[in-house]
Design a protein that fits this description.
By secondary structure, this protein is of the alpha/beta class. 37% of the residues lie in helices and 16% in strands. The protein contains 18 helices and ten strands. A ten-stranded mixed beta sheet has the order 1-2-3-5-4-6-7-8-9-10, sandwiched between helices. It is globular, with a radius of gyration of 21 Å. The structure holds 2-acetamido-2-deoxy-beta-D-glucopyranose (3 copies). One 2-acetamido-2-deoxy-beta-D-glucopyranose binds at residues 253, 255-256, 259, 349. This is Secretory lipase-domain-containing protein. It comes from Diplogelasinospora grovesii. One of its GO terms (molecular function) is triacylglycerol lipase activity.
Length: 448
């Protein structure tokens, strides 16, 4: 820790002053407080029980700009559960929910091991890349948020791989305090504001923020957050420069996904998704709750139990079930009523809120069994028709889970070119390149 405090002192001299609302604590104070408590911190409580996961009640945080840092705490165990991390911090920041009310989210900032070489006298050895990595957590249970879940390890080893390249890595709880799984606007705002918050604070840990390039990456539920960030950035964060975004296993249309997976292996994502997205839309939530059957084999209590499950647990519980059976009016109840359609129009369909201004890498298994490849084809075509710069790999091999592994190396290679500035010399920086590829690194075991 002494090392970090040294870094901090050295760099706070070099970091330009940051303007904050007068009522907010300075970043230096927040970080110093976080570091002072380092040895005293026990294993954190889950977010639903941990009072740290709350907006500060002693300040007018709603009036601060989106991305303003409201709280920081050291996360002392995360450098043991995630490889190649020097240390990690939780950052709570101001954001905006799907209904455009002030809200807050938490991101976990990992500082790469290599950063120990960084000092004010050796700035060339200091990191100058930030990856915002959106983990697919796919649940409406706030206690499955990454900031907490990472204490038992990371699911895919990708944070550790990114840290080994010397990148700062931020992992936002993009579903927010209500665990709004599948709510696009909430997730996009949380992702963009997480980057803004980290860029405000990371200079204190030696990130060379004035030359830092930022990339976003996500697969599946993580791609949902990343894609919405790309769409919304034009209007919501016009001054934030995101250099590139990698999106694997996209799910562009939530109602299409619902119909596609209903009655199949991963039907359990449906109750999690419906309760998640509706947490941003009280009228739709009240409607759904009023339409769940109170008794019988397909009853409300079973449906609502996903609020306490992880994604894997809900998939196991609802495997092969017809989820429309839980509703008095069946399929109609969750597709046709006006309150439901309004909700999907705001939060459920990619491609209608803006066009990505940065290069995008899209990779998708043609035989993806969670979301039809045609939906992703349509989204890519839509963006390409209005000047986006996209490389789109359609993989002939594997399905949804396999493409996470099959696409990993391609995503890393592409992201590295974005973050080291070599993108234009390797990839086409104009228009769209759509190719069928075959990468078959992992056995295809179809879900159904
Ligand atoms: C984690 O960081 C703490 C300081 O915050 C340090 O004392 C400890 O050795 C680190 N653990 C690992 C495994 O790097
Ligand atoms: C989403 O998918 C549904 C079902 O396939 C389709 O009817 C609808 O038109 C799609 N919506 C958008 C906005 O693409
Ligand atoms: C890719 O494969 C699809 C069939 O999935 C085919 O229709 C399409 O023409 C192919 N595209 C290219 C660019 O070869």
């Amino acid at each position: 820790m002494a090392l970090l405090i040294r870094l901090l002192l050295a760099w706070s001299v070099l970091t330009p002053p940051i303007s904050l609302a007068a009522t907010l604590k300075s970043l230096e104070t927040l970080v110093a407080d976080a570091d002072a408590g380092v040895d005293a911190l026990p294993m954190p409580l889950p977010p639903s029980l941990d009072p740290w996961y709350r907006a500060p009640d002693d300040m007018d945080w709603e009036d601060s700009d989106p991305g303003t840092v409201l709280k920081i705490r050291h996360a002392p165990r995360l450098n043991q559960t995630v490889g190649n991390a020097l240390t990690a911090y939780h950052v709570l920041y101001r954001s905006t929910d799907s209904e455009y009310n002030p809200s807050w989210d938490v991101t976990t900032l990992f500082i790469p091991l290599w950063q120990y070489r960084c000092s004010a006298s050796a700035p060339a050895l200091c990191a100058h890349a930030l990856l915002s990595y959106q983990i697919p957590y796919d649940t409406c249970n706030v206690d499955a948020s990454p900031s907490f879940g990472l204490h038992v390890g990371e699911p895919y080893g990708e944070i550790s791989d990114a840290l080994s390249l010397g990148w700062f890595v931020a992992v936002p709880d993009y579903e927010g305090p209500l665990a709004s799984y599948a709510a696009g606007v909430q997730a996009g705002h949380a992702t963009l504001d997480g980057v803004r918050a980290v860029l405000r604070v990371a200079g204190l840990f030696g990130l060379r923020t004035h030359v830092t390039k930022v990339a976003l990456w996500g697969y599946s539920g993580g791609a949902l957050a990343s894609e919405w960030a790309a769409e919304l950035s034009v209007q919501y964060a016009p001054k934030l420069n995101v250099a590139g975004i990698a999106l694997g296993g996209l799910t562009p249309n939530v109602t299409s996904v619902t119909d596609f997976i209903n009655g199949r292996e991963c039907a359990g994502l449906i109750p999690a998704g419906l309760l998640g997205i509706a947490s941003q839309h009280p009228a739709a939530m009240n409607w759904m709750l009023s339409r769940l059957k109170p008794t019988g084999p397909y009853n409300a209590a079973t449906f609502l139990s996903v609020r306490h499950l992880t994604a894997a647990q809900s998939i196991a519980l609802f495997r092969y079930q017809n989820m429309y059976n839980y509703f008095v009016g069946g399929w109609w109840d969750i597709h046709v009523p006006r309150v439901m359609r309004l909700m999907y129009d705001v939060d459920g369909y990619m491609g209608y809120h803006g066009v990505p201004r940065m290069p995008v890498f899209v990779y998708k298994a043609i035989h993806d069994e969670l979301s039809r490849v045609e939906d992703t084809d349509a989204l890519v075509n839509r963006f390409c028709g209005v000047g986006a710069n996209i490389l789109y790999h359609r993989n002939t091999a594997g399905g949804h889970n396999q493409e996470l592994v099959n696409g990993r190396q391609r995503a890393f290679t592409w992201l590295a070119s974005i973050l080291d500035g070599s993108y234009d010399t390797i990839y086409s920086a104009m228009g769209c390149t759509i190719v069928n590829v075959t990468y078959d690194l992992t056995p295809f075991v179809p879900w159904d």
